[in-house]
């Protein structure tokens, strides 16, 4: 419990960041919903200044134009045995037979049960990737309208196309290679709604490009390393090529914008970064998979969160976010308020890992494949 208890209540709706009952009480209450509306009341801004005055964004836009790829070109004819894939990935999230299970809902579990959990976890994870990608599609379309700089409008337009392709590939993979997609996780949905509804254009960037996509880049990288399934591996690698550019877009744009904000305005950005981090940490508790398997959800989440490999996995998800927040000056502004929050969340150790403002050239697999073709 921190001295910020009242503040936590305002930011995340509970005093104690780790209050498991409060976290699990947030559930998706309409899993059959087909349409979800969010009111956005931000101004759409025309600019009559067409001068190309932001060279870093020009470079990024030029890169985006030549790194487009077609989802149809992935090896969709690959036979995927999802049971084998799930089994191979069984321990990738720190959930599995290496957990201490005495006195937990996983006690006495055998291969069959662990296999079922691996299977559900994979469907769940890829489903949340897909929903998050749609969030990115909506946010970038919004940025095209709301950002006042022409170079950023150009770049954001390329990202809209990238995100459409990402939704497409995850939806197609779930539909044709796996079965049992999950509805959007309530914590993720809450975060996406908050990002869309905020009428300050830079908050869209912070929520999406820095926080959601920063986490996605780490999560995709992790799954890309672990998976032995060639189609999924290729798909993730291509998506990562795009995501690295997206995060760079966020870092480069916000660096310029934050330089002229006052302390109170920066504090609001720190608070939003904290809120987003908590929502994403909560979503990775993957409560819906335990529910689908008929387990006591609270006990299962508690046991899973206590697994040592799980803590490492969940920490790694923040390995891009923390250095990028540092680069933007958010970590240490205002007496290091965000540094303290990230310390409480157990992710501060990543602060000196490489940030993502330049990484996109290294990660451009599409260009590499074309050069070697
Ligand atoms: Fe994406
Ligand atoms: Fe993205």
Describe the structure.
- The chain contains 16 helices and no strands.
- The protein has 373 residues and is mainly α.
- The longest helix is centred in the middle third of the chain and has 36 residues.
- It is globular.
- 42% of the residues are buried.
**What is the ordering of alpha helices and beta strands?**
HHHHHHHHHHHHHHHH
Model regions low in confidence, pLDDT < 50 over at least 5 residues:
none
What ligands does this structure carry?
fe (ii) ion
How many helices? The count is 16
> What does the radius of gyration come to?
20 Å
Q: First CA to last CA: what distance?
A: 56 Å
- Overall spatial form: globular
Beta strands, count: 0
Percentage of residues in helical conformation: 55-70%
Task: Provide a brief overview of the structure.
The chain is 63% helix and 0% strand. One fe (ii) ion binds next to helix 5 and helix 6.
SSE arrangement:
Layout: H1 5-12, H2 20-25, H3 55-66, H4 82-88, H5 111-146, H6 150-176, H7 186-197, H8 201-226, H9 230-258, H10 263-283, H11 287-292, H12 297-306, H13 308-316, H14 321-327, H15 333-344, H16 365-372
Helix pairs in contact: 3-6, 3-9, 4-5, 5-6, 5-7, 5-8, 6-9, 7-8, 7-10, 8-9, 8-10, 10-15
Give short descriptive properties of this protein.
binds fe (ii) ion, globular, 16 helices, mainly alpha, 373 residues
